[in-house]
């Protein structure tokens, strides 16, 4: 009897440790060293600075960086680019906005098929062409709206004086589809206060909507398991180190006035479509939490995937992957940066990569790059 108890105890312990290993170990078939070597091969010496992070089921399995967040010899207070460097994530923000909104639909008692008309501020003048646009069409870029129009006054003018310039149902990627959520979400939460702030001034409503949007989304980041979510911001002044952005084509010729890095601007009046500052470790944790149902239940996540809400499918070596990229520049000197995430369902791995320069010496598109660095490090 004693031997049986010992055998049973060993069996339980063995099963437990095997389960732990299965959950927390890197996926069988993924060579982490090869993955990291592939990332360096694609980016080192071809961009100014870059960072990445990869998660699997809540576990950080790879992270790192190379190059400069603030380039030595070019700018003051030089700082290396690491996996914990905070920088703007550009349009990969859209995934966060979409998932956060969808997670709260049941609590609000609304659906993706509801029309946005009654949830736009009552004080806004609204062109009648928007009367049939739904939340899902905004998230899917099939609303008929066009253009960037990130800032509050631009959005209000588009809604009042321009309306739809395309056909509802036709796909057209446009930032305004997502920046509108910076007003829609606060208005759903407290429409009376939104209308009151509109009566005060444009700046009052800009600040109020940005504040409510950011706090709302931060609670979703926390639920998804993002570390340090309380320290992220849409204001570059609160992001440390203050990452600079470069034109690599100018940078590679050596230090000069034009080769110096440039600060990103305060993004709280463009948030929704872009604008968050966070690190690769933080962003990758969010995507991992999203695909492991920490934020959304399985049916809601499936809707995001099937309807392409804040993410797009792409075919990889091992099946269908999901992704979204971002990037942008500002000013007249070609300075900016880029970012991209990808989730590989067969391995349950989420990878985020970002870099702080444009006009780079890359040989692949962002999507091909992030697909290849993983596929070439994975074997069945």
From TrEMBL:
The keyword Signal applies. Residues 1-19 form the signal peptide. Keywords: Signal. It holds the Pfam family Beta-lactamase. Residues 37-370 form the Beta-lactamase-related domain. It comes from the Bacteria. InterPro entries: Beta-lactam-related, Beta-lactam/transpept-like, Diverse_Enzym_Activities. PANTHER family: BETA-LACTAMASE FAMILY PROTEIN (AFU_ORTHOLOGUE AFUA_5G07500), BETA-LACTAMASE-RELATED. This is Beta-lactamase family protein. It comes from Aureispira anguillae.
